[in-house]
Description:
This protein has 9 helices and 21 strands. By secondary structure, it is α+β, with helices and mostly antiparallel strands. It has 2 domains: 3-48 and 170-375, Naphthalene 1,2-dioxygenase Alpha Subunit, Chain A, domain 1 (Alpha-Beta Complex), CATH 3.90.380.10; 50-161, Rieske Iron-sulfur Protein, CATH 2.102.10.10. The strands form 4 sheets. Strands 1, 13, 14, 15, 16, 17, 18, 19 and 20 form a 9-stranded antiparallel β-sheet that branches.
Amino acid sequence: MSHSKQFKYTLDQPLAPNIPGRMLARKQQSFTDPHIFDHEMASIFDHDWVMVGRSGSIPNPGDYVTAFLGQRPIIVMRQQDGSIRTMANYCLHRYVKLLEGCGSTKSIVCPYHCWAYKLDGELMGVPEREGFRPDDIEGMALETLATDEYLGYVFVALKKDLQPVSERLHPLGLVLKNFELDGYEDRHVVHEEQWNANWKLIYHNFIESYHTTYTHTKSIGPANPTKAVEYGPTGDPNFTIHSNSYIRDHLPDIYNPHLDEDERKRFYVTGVFPNGLVAVEPNFVWWMALEPKSVNQTNARWGVSFSHHGMEAMAEPEKFVEEIVNVIKIATTEDKAMVERMQAGANFGSQKAGLLHAPLEVHIKEFDDYVMRLSGS
């Protein structure tokens, strides 16, 4: 059986035996308690791979993006040999944050006292060097973090003994193999967008399609309604996936010759634990990497990347890019409004747990189970 054939369960069939008939949502305290938030940063983001974004957004040596690994500021930079290195984003002198945002540079220079570092983090310049003992500054370099790439995405970890991402996400890679995600062209990235909501609420929203018909009335709802959801295997400890498929009247033109009949209509919705969100369809991918800032604030880095097959074969590829980016901007705005309303509602502080839809919100349970495994709460 091809991996796409695994996605055969739909809403008009009896509930699959691997999906519980009754599932409870996390209590409101999970999204409002700062102590729970701090514990999650330490127990999850300090102990697992975290998705930063697309590797194609930093294509050339010296290109970089700054991000956060939990609460830790980091620099993700393309090296001279084409590899990607992740470094702690602070000066070894007095801890000043070295770089902001994204861009390109030939060296890393601290804005405070102009300590300078090579692209790989090695210290190469210290003004008024005679004020320091040579042995103290010789061989100094920025702290490096574990870095991995898979399916065109960059992952970073504080720990350096974790299973490689390619092994951890191998089953997901098999499902998405024919899309050739590592070749998608990264045309649009929003690095800074603050959502006034807990990071888990944003994650929950993205990975369920119960809300699609009702929230995304001006964007993806008509083409990918809730009734078109298709389910496959559940229970993987590292990711969750389903398809919020296209209805017949909205099927897109397909340019990728490797996709089978099922894949040509699918809009796979994937959550890569703990913070990566990826929605894949034949011509583009909409992704998001969450950076928790506080218990009720999250930076949502997101972007839209496009299949190289489509960009090469379409009569007007730039027009298509513009149209899709506009649709995703609307969808993101719709999601943001609802997630922030969820956060506002959770501030009531009720001890009564909400209910999850079976099967439309089973993916929320899978993610919550992951959080529980790592954090114990």
